[in-house]
Amino acid sequence: MWFNTLKKRSLSKVVEKSTLRALPADFKYEFKEVGILVNKSDACNVPELIKAIEKKGISGVKIKVLIYTSENKKALEEGCFGMKDFTVSGTTENIEILDFIEKRFDILISYYTNKAVSLMWMTAKSNALFKVGVSSENTTLNHFSLALESLEVDNFIENLYKYINVFKH
Fold first, then answer.
1. Of 122, 109, 90, whose CA–CA distance to 48 is shortest?
2. In this predicted model, what pLDDT tens digit does every residue of 36-56 receive, in sequence order?
3. Measured between alpha carbons, how far is 131 from 115 in angstroms, rounded to an integer?
């Protein structure tokens, strides 16, 4: 149990020290590959979120989702990660997590409102070109954040694309 406290502290230090990379000058706001980070409590929104993104012309095979769970199981289902996947030094050896953060997504959607340090670590470490969040609490991790009272998928995607069109022009 106290290992998790040490892990959280280490992850928090990594998040605090992280800096958000500026968007490339030639960034065109065209998205072909999407990464989504979500908390397990909000995972019920994932199919609807994927459908809404597909309506915008992005293939479902180009959408990668990772779900954080606070469950303390030895073996989590595929696409899920938890505190057990992190070390006390604030790193991970989990191949799925490493592949996700190293992937150069066109857009990373941090679809969580809670302050789970492992989700914030994933957002901070991600190599995504454009990072979008749904919380106004930690805006230093994302290029753009939409403050939402509730996680309404259609509202989020419509507003996101409305603002992206503004950024394009």
1. 109
2. 999 998 888 899 999 999 999
3. 17
User: Please, what sign has the CA dihedral across residues 70, 71, 72, 73?
Assistant: negative
Identity of residue 98: L
Strands of the chain, DSSP E: 34-39, 63-68, 80-81, 107-111, 130-133, 144-145
Task: Retrieve residue 95's tokens.
Answer: 């191949």
Q: What tens digit of pLDDT does each residue of 103-134 get?
A: 999 999 998 887 889 999 999 999 999 999 88
Query: Residue 96, SS3?
Result: helix
- Helices 95-102 + 117-125 axis angle, to 10: 50
pTM, 2 dp = 0.91
Which residues lie below 8 Å from residue 64, measured CB to CB, with a gap of 6+?
Answer: 33, 34, 35, 36, 100, 103, 105
**Distance from C-alpha of 48 to C-alpha of 60, rounded to nearest angstrom:** 12
